[in-house]
Amino acid sequence: MNARKVPLRKCTGCGEMKTKKEMIRVIKTPEDEIVLDVTGKKNGRGAYICNDPECLSKAIKSKGLERSLKTAIPKEVYDQLESELVKHASNR
Description:
The chain is of the alpha+beta class and 92 residues long. 36% of the residues lie in helices and 24% in strands. The protein has three helices and five strands. It is globular and about 45 Å long. It starts with 7 loop residues before the first strand and ends with a helix. The mean pLDDT is 88.
């Protein structure tokens, strides 16, 4: 039996390759909305970020998410991401 290939994604903050389950997905919907995709299954162009507040600050500083999604990111999305990262940190 063949082992399944685990999809890897690159973090827009630190640039490390990790599995999809270790990361949070941010998408740009066809209607040009920027949304957090916790399920990882919504339609749209996706960018990934590690479950690490440090990676988020790197992504904000380098505008990594904005480059990946090819649009400006509203501050509310960054706030949402921050609260999601706090949740993940408390669940560990």
